[in-house]
Every structure is written in C-alpha cells, then in structure tokens.
C-alpha cells in the first residue's frame, strides 16, 4: 500500500528569479554572438536557451487545501502541500488533488428494511481526502469510489434496521436518527479507509416508505397513535375513578354496595373515556330506583 510522503519543494520565487536572470544573460550572449557572427556561440546560446525553457517547467503553484503529487517516470516521489509558487525537478509530473471538504447526496435507494418492508432512503456524506497518495494510486477513481461505497454502506445499513419500531424500543431508522447516522459514518469510513478519505459526517436526508405500501403503513401508524392515546386516556380515567371512590369512602358521603359501586365505575369510565360529549340522566327518585 502506498502511503503519502510529504515533500518540501524549493521556493518558486527564487527559482523564477534565477531563471529570468539566466534567460536575460543568455539573450545578451545570443545578441553579442550574432554581432560577432560566431556560429558556434550562436548554436551554444540557442542550446542553453532551450535548456532554460525546459527548466521553467519545474515551476508549479500549490493552492490552499490542495496537494501536488510528484512522480518521476511513474514512480511516486512525494506530495507537496505547502501553498505558494514552488519548484521541483522538471522531469516530475505534478498531479493536482483537492484536500477541501466535499459533500454529496446519494440517490434515493429502494431497499427492504429488516421487516421486509420496501422503503426509500438517501444520505448526505461529508468527506475529504487526507492521504493524496492513497487516493490517486490505491483506487482507480477516488470520487466514484466514495460514491459507490457510500451507497453500498447505506443499503446494507437500511436492511439491518426497521423503518419504525412501533411499540417496541428497538433501534429504528425513524426514531434513532443520531445513532443511525453515527453507525452509517463508521461503516462508510471502514469502506473508504484504503482510499485515503476521511468521512466527516454522514446522515440520512430522505426516508419514506415505498409508494406501493405508503398508504397501508400510514394507516398502521395512525392506528398505533390512536391506541397509544386511548391507553393514556384509560390510565387517567382509572386513576380518577379510583380517587373518586376513595374520597367518597373517606368522607363517608355515601355507602355503596358492590353492585352500585360497579355501576358507578362503569358510568364514570364511559364519561371519562368517551370521545364525545355525554348526555346526563338526572335521577329524581331514590338511588335504588
């Protein structure tokens, strides 16, 4: 595996100044040779000038958050990351690679969750290159590699968790977004380790049931919500009935036998649990009539 070797290139400003001075000297030499009508000096001046023009090829610019990967006839030499005008061997090839933070959004993938429900899912991945040598030499196209491996990790993650946990406390895609995002980042990072890429953040950007089951799942979610609300109403009603019976007994307001107690509990539960307004019936006679 090729690892990054950071290399310090010479200052390009000093090299540029020297080359310009040398070019001026050779130009003056060529001018004097022409005046002297000396073929040998003219040829020598032309040769030296050609060499100087070739030496200018050693100049290159490194922008902030950018690296230049140096190669000599196919062999990796090193990476220059110091910004500014730099100078290196003119025979080196100098490939540019960006170290800036980048992000992309995967396409909407249609997969089955762990309950075999078809869902649509997409994610946003924030990444950057941290090893220029690995990014260029370990994979064919590191940008395409990041995209493909991110989608593969997202697809694998979606198949291991349910879309919704419903009444359980299991980890689900909709209810444990932070945990899912952290797990997704770890899985993408493992896949991109060999490409010299650091995954800064990964989070789900789109999550929905597939259109063919969306309506049925919406009804299921609504039913679960209604059941949960009814459960809370019943719990509260039972507590209120219990409190009413205890206060009636403690204050000796009225003594109820088991039949009347059951009737009172039934009436109170109907009043408290009903989702519509109740119509009271006034008993003007005896309690037992």
Question: What is the mean predicted local confidence, pLDDT?
Answer: 83
**Strand segment count:** 10
Main sheet summary: 4 strands, antiparallel
The CATH class of the largest domain: Alpha Beta
Quick one: overall form? Answer: rod-shaped
**Which series of helices and strands comes N to C?**
EHHEEEEEEEEHHHEHH
What integer value in Å does the Rg equal? 39 Å
Helix content class: 40-55%
- Write the CATH architecture name of the largest domain: 2-Layer Sandwich
Low-confidence stretches: none
**Structural class by secondary-structure content:** alpha+beta
Total separate domains: 3
Topology summary:
Elements: E1 10-11, H1 12-36, H2 39-55, E2 59-62, E3 66-72, E4 75-80, E5 84-87, E6 93-98, E7 102-105, E8 109-112, E9 118-129, H3 132-137, H4 142-158, H5 177-192, E10 197-209, H6 211-250, H7 258-273
Antiparallel strand pairs: 1-5, 2-5, 3-4, 3-6, 7-9, 8-9, 9-10
Helix pairs in contact: 1-2, 4-5, 6-7
Task: Note down, in words, how this protein is organized.
- This protein is an alpha+beta fold.
- It has three domains: 10-97, no CATH class; 102-209, Tetrahydropterin Synthase, Chain A, CATH 3.30.479; 220-273, no CATH class.
- 47% of the residues lie in helices and 21% in strands.
- The chain contains seven helices and ten strands.
- It has helices at 12-36, 39-55, 132-137, 142-158, 177-192, 211-250, 258-273; strands at 10-11, 59-62, 66-72, 75-80, 84-87, 93-98, 102-105, 109-112, 118-129, 197-209.
- Strands 7, 8, 9 and 10 form a four-stranded antiparallel sheet that branches. Strands 1-5-2 form a three-stranded antiparallel sheet. Strands 4-3-6 form a three-stranded antiparallel sheet.
- β3 and β4 form a beta hairpin.
- α1 (12-36) runs antiparallel to α2 (39-55), α4 (142-158) crosses α5 (177-192) and α6 packs across α7.
- The longest helix has 40 residues, at 211-250.
- The radius of gyration is 39 Å and the shape is rod-shaped.
- It starts with 9 loop residues before the first strand and ends in a 16-residue tail after the last helix.
- The mean pLDDT is 83.
């Amino acid at each position: 595996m090729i690892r990054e070797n950071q290399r310090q290139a010479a200052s390009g400003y000093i090299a540029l100044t020297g080359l310009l001075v040398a070019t001026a000297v050779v130009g003056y030499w060529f001018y004097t040779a022409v005046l002297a009508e000396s073929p040998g000096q003219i040829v020598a001046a032309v040769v030296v000038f050609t060499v100087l023009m070739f030496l200018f090829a050693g100049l290159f610019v490194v922008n902030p958050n950018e690296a230049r990967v140096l190669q000599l006839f196919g062999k990796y030499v090193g990476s220059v990351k110091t910004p500014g005008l730099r100078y290196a061997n003119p025979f080196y090839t100098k490939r540019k690679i960006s170290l800036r933070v980048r992000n992309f959004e995967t396409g909407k993938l249609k997969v089955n969750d762990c309950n075999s429900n078809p869902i649509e899912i997409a994610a946003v991945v924030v990444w950057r290159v941290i090893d220029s040598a690995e990014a260029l030499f370990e994979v064919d196209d590191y940008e395409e590699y990041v995209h493909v491996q991110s989608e593969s990790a997202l697809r694998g993650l979606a198949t291991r968790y349910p879309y919704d946990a419903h009444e359980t406390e299991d980890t689900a895609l909709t209810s444990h977004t932070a945990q899912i995002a952290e797990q997704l980042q770890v899985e993408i990072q493992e896949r991109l380790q060999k490409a010299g890429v650091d995954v800064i953040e990964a989070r789900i950007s789109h999550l929905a049931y597939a259109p063919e089951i969306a309506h049925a799942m919406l009804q299921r979610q609504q039913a679960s919500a209604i059941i949960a609300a009814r459960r809370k109403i019943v719990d509260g009603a039972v507590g209120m009935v219990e409190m009413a019976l205890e206060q009636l007994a403690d204050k000796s307001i009225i003594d109820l036998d088991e039949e009347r107690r059951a009737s009172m509990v039934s009436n109170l539960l109907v009043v408290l649990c009903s989702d519509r307004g109740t119509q009271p019936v006034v008993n003007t006679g005896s309690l037992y009539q």
